[in-house]
Structure formats: structure tokens, C-alpha cells
Amino acid sequence: MLGSGSAGNSALVATEHCKILIDGGLSARQLVLRLAQCGVTPSQLDGILLTHEHGDHVCGLEVLCRKLEVPIYCNALTAEAIRCNGLFEQHHNWRIFRTGAEFSICDVTVQTFP
Question: Among 6, 13, 21, 66, which is most buried by a count of CB atoms within 10 Å?
């Protein structure tokens, strides 16, 4: 867990072959710092998985993603809400999943649910 609470939510899931950031509600600076404490740089991320579009889950990602083309995984409603708010306008590496679907990021299987 990189952070939890009203100040921002974020977690890192890491295997030998895969590093996934779950949400990014902390500031970009805090995300980079806390990833570094886990021995991970943002460029090592294989994906960012968004649970939903609330600010305490996404607010640090726009700045972080300006320099990265890391895939952002989310469902269609989350992507639409984020784009309607004008966030991530320069990001083009979206991976939209169907809620309830199962998919993989590297060697990690993600099971989504409504």
C-alpha cells in the first residue's frame, strides 16, 4: 500500500515480471517517492489500473503520465468521466475493460467486478 485515505489512495502490485500501480490518488511527487521506497521507478510500471475516477484515486496520475506512455486500464465509464473532466488529454494508451471481465497485465490476472 503506497497510501490510503482521504489524502489519496494508491497501491503497488509487483511480481518478478510485472509492476502495476493501482490508482494514483497521491500527488505525482508522492507517488514517485513512495514507488522509489519500494525500489520501483515510474518507467518500470507495466500498467496503471484505475478502480474509479474519484480524485483521491486519480489526482496524481495526470502529471505522472505526462512523461510516460504506460497503459491505463479502466472501464468505459471511468474513462469517460475522466475525459469529461479534461484530465489525461495527452494520454493515448488507454486499455478499456468490460466490468466483470477478466484480463491479464503481464503475469497478473485481474478479475473485475461491478
Answer: 21
Q: Where are the alpha helices (DSSP H) in the chain?
A: 28-37, 55-58, 61-65, 76-84
Cα–Cα distance measured from residue 87 to residue 61, given in angstroms and rounded to the nearest whole number = 9
Per-residue DSSP letter, 40: -
State the pTM of this model: 0.91
CA dist 50 → 62, 90 (Å): 12, 17
Instruction: Please report, rounded to a whole number, the percentage of residues in the chain having pLDDT higher than 70.
Output: 99
Domain 11-111 has CATH 3.60.15.10: yes
CA atoms of 11 and 3, how far apart (whole Å): 7
Contact between residue 34 and residue 26 where contact means Cβ atoms under 8 Å apart? yes
